[in-house]
Here is the input.
Amino acid sequence: MNYLAHLFLSGDEEELLIGNFIADAVKGKQLEQYPEGIARGIRLHRLIDTYTDTHPVVHQTKLRLRPHFRKYAPVVADVFYDHFLATGFDQFATMPLASFVDRVYQIINQQYDQLPPRVQHFFPYMMRQNWLASYSEIEGIRQALAGMSRRTSFVSGMERAGDELQANYRHYAADFHNFFPELMLYVEQVKKEL
Here is the structure.
């Protein structure tokens, strides 16, 4: 899952949200350097990634994407899924997407000093360009994936992913809607055990 889904799945716990947000920049046992609430968020992020990476519906999405994006198919799938969460946010959340995004940016901004350097570097851009809300539009997905494509060391093709999303929109939407409720249930269970 990409940023929006990880943040949404954190629920109301602010430290859990911060940990879930920064987890990709925290390697191995570095999580021990963080307060327990943030460390729980890092562990939750890793569990979400493992569950997602091994889920059969997500596997189908990646198979559909692999001919176009090869090793970057999982990245494209994550961003597509964030798009469908953003467009149907009111089906899953008790507040509008815009309110949720504003709340998240405020929480992260208040904990800026806790963010790893890599996250401190990109977070101001994320907030200024409103990445999370932009995922609700195909043009926002195009921009996000084009930006990722520019940062890859190999030809990724991700700059064309918006076209793939448009061409097969209902297939990717169906994948997301089959998968995400199961992920939500899984997260509710594991949050109690963290």
Notes: Residues 3-191 form one domain. The mean pLDDT is 94.
